[in-house]
Design a protein that fits this description.
This protein has eight helices and no strands. The longest helix has 24 residues, at 98-121. The protein is globular, with a radius of gyration of 24 Å. With 178 residues, it is mostly helical. Pfam families: Yip1. Residues 57-176 form the Yip1 domain.
């Protein structure tokens, strides 16, 4: 590196900051690391956190802890579930629905990234992954509506089925705008 030969480092630059370890009693819980935890406990802890967030999506409450403890597992499950249900078609159909899965998946995640970047550029204080988490969980009413509509379609297609699906979609839209 020819340009780096001219760089000199001064030896008398003082080091700033506190580098000592505080001495005192601490509880055994503070020594616990998730690296030492069994895989089953890790999965159960994550599933409980996702379940807790699902409950908060169904019954919204003010909680800053939910925003602080972001995860992308719930949004991933919701997005994949929605994309799989929209894939549709029967097993003997020539249309396998592959492009629909990719389109739904990309539109949801790319849209969330664009909205998150817009928020950050406008000076938002929320972190990138917190925003992705919140936007991902916002897909839950849409996913529930799709699940109910699929179940109604199993009973048969017709005017009554259409009206029921229309009511379900309207109810989920109303729920998501509360």
């Amino acid at each position: 590196f020819p340009g780096l030969a001219d760089v000199s480092i001064s030896q008398d630059i003082p080091v700033e900051g506190e580098i000592t370890v505080p001495v005192g009693s601490h509880s055994p819980d503070e020594d616990y690391s998730t690296l030492d935890e069994p895989v089953k406990d890790t999965i159960m802890r994550d599933l409980k956190a996702v379940g807790k967030k699902f409950v908060h999506v169904m019954y919204p409450r003010k909680s800053s802890a939910l925003l602080r403890d972001w995860d992308l597992w719930g949004p991933l499950v919701l997005c994949v579930s929605l994309a799989l249900m929209l894939q549709g078609g029967s097993a003997d159909s020539k249309d396998d629905g592959g492009p629909q899965f990719a389109e739904v998946f990309v539109i949801i995640w790319f849209g969330a990234v664009v909205i998150t970047l817009n928020s950050k550029l406008l000076g938002g204080t929320i972190s990138f992954f917190q925003s992705l988490c919140v936007l991902g969980y916002c897909v839950m009413p849409l996913t529930v509506a799709m699940l109910v509509c699929r179940l109604v379609l199993l009973a048969g297609a017709g005017t009554v089925s259409f009206i029921i699906r229309l009511i379900v979609v309207g109810a989920m839209f109303g729920w998501s705008t509360l």
